[in-house]
Amino acid sequence: LQLVESGGGLVQPGGSLRLSCEPSGFNVDYYSMGWFRQAPGKDREGVACISLYDNRSKIAESLKGRFTVTRNRGANTVYLQLSSLKPEDTAIYFCASHSTPWCDIVAEKYDYWGQGTQVTVSL
Q1: At 30, is the pLDDT very low, low, confident or very high (cuts 50, 70, 90)?
Q2: Gap between the Cα atoms of 15 and 121, Å rounded
Q3: Mean of the pLDDT values across residues 56-70?
């Protein structure tokens, strides 16, 4: 089972990006999905998740209002929309999956991880 992130890149402060997470070998409809990020020299940080059971999302408190997570069941893809980006959002962004019905933004609960996509916010 694999997860592949895409959509990262270089963006100016205030800009937006949409990251995608596509699985290989399974259907995201049957998993709770999470997004995490890790900046250079910092610990991995939970960003958002979306539950298997009711498709409700959770966003890290410090990121509410700027980041949104959604699931496209027909496309078998999960998205992370990043808006009003700041330089401190620069990090590698990872998606991950776990099979419990309710999501939580706790990395230890996740079973499968992607390789990550780099997001750089800079002038």
Answers
A1: confident
A2: 8
A3: 96
